[in-house]
């Protein structure tokens, strides 16, 4: 067996990638508010991911509570700049700063579902100050019951 001289560089490359909070494991290296950290403990409770980390530059303990994801209802698509208008599932607010995903499967499901007057539920994940669509569920118009479920796709 040969030894590698990368000194953990392959683990550090995960810092720049957009990942779901649920995909983070103990001993992963992540970026929290611009601080490179190593995860020493994590758990999920009530839809939130509790991260216990150590800043690898200072050695200080850093705690963060982040949502696993947020769901929105697709209410509009601007084909001019590929932006979408989303209504939060609680109906409390809308967002128009999200763009159609580069993933062709997710993009096609969103556009086709919207054009066919289906109810499109979009999962948004936030990491490193960026938001991205990571999941799309399509339902028949009027409800989000399992019996009216049409299609689902998850991925970046």
From TrEMBL:
InterPro entries, per database record: IF5A-like, IF5A_C, NA-bd_OB-fold, Translation_prot_SH3-like_sf
GO biological process per UniProt: positive regulation of translational elongation; positive regulation of translational termination
Translation initiation factor 5A C-terminal domain mapped to chain residues: 71-135
Pfam family, one: eIF-5a
GO terms of molecular function: ribosome binding; RNA binding; translation elongation factor activity
Name of protein: Translation initiation factor 5A C-terminal domain-containing protein
Lineage of origin: Eukaryota, Viridiplantae, Streptophyta, Embryophyta, Tracheophyta
């Amino acid at each position: 067996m040969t030894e590698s001289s990368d000194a953990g560089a392959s683990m550090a490359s995960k810092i720049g990638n957009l990942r779901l909070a649920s995909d983070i494991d103990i001993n992963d290296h992540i970026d929290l508010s611009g601080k490179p950290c190593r995860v020493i403990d994590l758990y999920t409770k009530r839809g939130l991911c509790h991260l216990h980390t150590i800043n690898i530059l200072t050695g200080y303990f850093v705690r963060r509570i982040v949502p696993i994801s947020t769901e929105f209802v697709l209410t509009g698509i601007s084909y001019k700049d590929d932006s979408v208008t989303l209504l939060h599932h609680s109906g409390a607010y809308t967002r128009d700063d999200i763009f159609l995903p580069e993933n062709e499967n997710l993009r096609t499901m969103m556009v086709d579902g919207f054009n066919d007057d289906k109810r499109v539920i979009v999962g948004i994940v936030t990491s490193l100050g960026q938001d991205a669509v990571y999941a799309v569920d399509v339902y028949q118009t009027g409800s989000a019951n399992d019996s009216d479920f049409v299609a689902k796709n998850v991925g970046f």
